[in-house]
Fold each of these.
Amino acid sequence: MTSIKVAYQSTELQELNAQHQHREELSQEELKEKINLLHSMGFWEDDVKNEELLKRYNGNIERVIEILIREQTERVNNNFYNSMENVVVSQ
């Protein structure tokens, strides 16, 4: 990702969160905008989960991204450690 795109997305995240801070429930339009933003960042695998997280965290997309990245990292680490166990066991 280029630094311009990252800066733009960061600004867009701040604007979306600022718009939503004082409301409790996401409108369908806001939800769709945030889902589209998640897609543009590569989080397109599970829209049901993305929507659930956005609703749970009141549209706080930065928190949702943090959770998605952490889960993704855990999956990668688990796959790595499992593959290393298979190498050790097979030797």
Note: The two ends are 40 Å apart (CA to CA).
Amino acid sequence: MNIAFLVTKTPQEVSFKNFVQILKLYSEEHQIHLYLIGNGVYASVPGHDYTSLIAQDGTNLRISAFSGDLKARSIHPDRMISSVEIFDNYDELVVDLMEKTDQVFSF
């Protein structure tokens, strides 16, 4: 099953820990796509408690961050975890969610 997580929280917020717990439940058996949007783009920067989880280079985990939110928070691609892809418009997100995803979680 293809599962998407819309992550809008920073790694320092309590609900991010809830996201991580649910991610661990699903990540071994399903294809996972994390979309880092809003303050969620801070998860693309190494140095937080969950860096190793976000940075894992597994075949079943894909991570994308919205370029507009990265720019608004002055996060340059050179400062990001290398496995994070950048997408430029929300149309890409909507198409992925509607056409390639079986289930969506939002945090």
Note: The mean pLDDT is 90.
Amino acid sequence: MHGAEQLEAWAAAVEASAALLPRLADCSAAWRQPGEGRGGQPVNSAGFLAENIVVRLVNNMSTDAYAWARGAHSVAAETAAALAGQPTPPHGSPAWQLWRAHSATCRMIHWAAQPGTLERLPAALDVHGWGQLGNGLHLQLFGIQVLLAPESRGVVLPKEYSRGFFGAVCAAHMAACQALEAAAAAGRVPPPLDGAAGPLALSLVFDSHFVGAMGVALRGCPQLADPACLELLRRAAACAAGPKNGSQRHEGVVTLLSRVARYCGVAPLPRLAASLAAGGLLEDLLEDAAALERAGRMDAVRQATWDSFNAQRAIAEGANDVVEASGRAAYSEQTAQLLSRLERVVCEMVKVQMSISVARGAPPLGFPEPPSSLAQLAPMVRQLQQPATRVAEVLLEYWQLPEQAKAAQLEVAQAAACRSCAYLRCSNAALQGGPAAGEGMGSKRCSACRAARYCSEQCSRADWRLGRHKQACAALAAQRQAGVGGSGSGGHAS
């Protein structure tokens, strides 16, 4: 790939290919060319053309685009400057082009995940095809991220990004990841003809890029960290790491969780860290670190121990933020009971923190500062593991309370409103015209809030039935009236 011009051509090709896939599926189902193909199966020209779109175009060109974005430092600086105070990147800019390709790929995935699609394109949609499609999507997200923050490790993106186009990209990405997982669970991700099956086949979809991309999405839009997303991340990480007693398991867990920690910044997000702890993955990490220590893999042990420590610290910070905020707001009886439980388990964790600090001769205030040596850090992490897990379990319950979930849903809806179709599961593969609100062909506003746009009444109704827009529509309307003025009536695209 050479320059932004090539990126524009590639994004246009991805968008055009997405529109072509349904037509190829129709041809594949209706017309087959005799001959011998892969594994002795009849050649299906339309099906293999679709396979090349998925593998050659989406995956390979996404790899080139990501490599170009990583080296385009001046473009990254221009992108950050152009987005200052703006919800979306300038039309035609590199970030806009990558967003365009990412949106088209998301629509491909949702279209392909629909019941009945597999039977029409079996060659393109075996597990290798799904894995390549997902990998291309993840690389597109990574490319957008490096344009926003070239030095991704430890860089905190401005909060407005989570409500603007990057939040929209992350929300759409998470929905696509959920579609991939749902298709696998429903048996719509079959093993390839080379015989890979079971956990091996699934790991071609739920690989380290899948886990790392979910980490980017949660960092870019923390409000996405609902129980379903966090559980998906936990399952994907466990699957990608391999069987519990497999020879590669120890290295796998350490590598994956280190990748998540890196993409989420120096310390994992509190919600992500709490999910990993409550789901048992941090406990697995410590067990695997012990096994790696016996094998003499001290670099991996050091990484695992630091990742565990950072996750525990993120859990403590998240709990402190919740407790401090509770003193400034009115809340329900259910919330009061949960906050009381949280305070009790936080006190238990604080006692352990204080005992660690006293034993080290340090002031018993706040979370213990990490020692410089691994020999001192490892026992500290093991001491904190159980109380941190108990705090994590209560935190997750708190974040699932209706009033907490409602605030997160509104921010996700604000981000989705930046899209040409606010329905995050849009499967309109033929949609063209651009990824931003008002750019897509046939884009119509919700008649109630006048903030969200949809590519069709079908998507508008689907988003309403799903409940995401229904729960945020009135709040979006109020925000629009306060900031822009005007209102509508009804509740469907018009």
Note: Residues 423-483 form one domain.
